[in-house]
Design a protein that fits this description.
It contains 6 helices and 3 strands, in the order ααβααββαα. The protein is mostly helical. A 3-stranded antiparallel beta sheet has the order 1-3-2. A hairpin with a 7-residue loop joins strand 2 and strand 3. Helix 2 crosses helix 4. The two termini are about 25 Å apart.
Length: about 130
């Protein structure tokens, strides 16, 4: 389901990895480059290329830390935040439409399963740490 939702907004200017990095920066920013690399499971060299593309598209900014120039902070621009909001709205609309095609019984089963799914996600997060 996650993959299907990620493919809802297909933009020739951004790869799926670039979109997901943009979402991480928008959600967490300002955030260190190293934190994004760890969160996304991307090696720093690849992440640097992705961030360069996002930066050239005016979606994110890079700033050096005031106390340690080796540390880079990433923030999304207004344009980046607006793009994320638009993509999130498209995904929400697609999910609502898909849910509308389910029977009442299937929606109830899904609703009953949500606490278990949330618990599973939390367990997976702990495993990644």
């Amino acid at each position: 389901m996650g993959r299907s939702l990620r493919l809802i907004h297909v933009d020739g200017n951004l790869s799926p990895s670039q979109r997901e990095v943009l979402f991480t920066i928008t959600r967490s920013g300002p955030v260190r480059l190293s934190e994004v690399a760890a969160s996304e499971g991307i090696n720093p060299t690849m992440l640097s290329r992705i961030v360069s593309h996002l930066e050239s598209a005016n979606l994110v900014t890079r700033t050096s830390d005031a106390t340690d120039a080796r540390i880079v902070h990433l923030s999304s621009t207004d344009h980046g935040r607006a793009l994320c909001k638009g993509i999130r709205n498209e995904r929400t609309d697609a999910l609502q439409s898909a849910l509308g095609h389910l029977s009442g019984e299937k929606r109830r089963v899904l609703l009953d399963a949500l606490p278990v799914l949330e618990s599973l996600v939390e367990t997976l997060k702990r495993c990644d740490q």
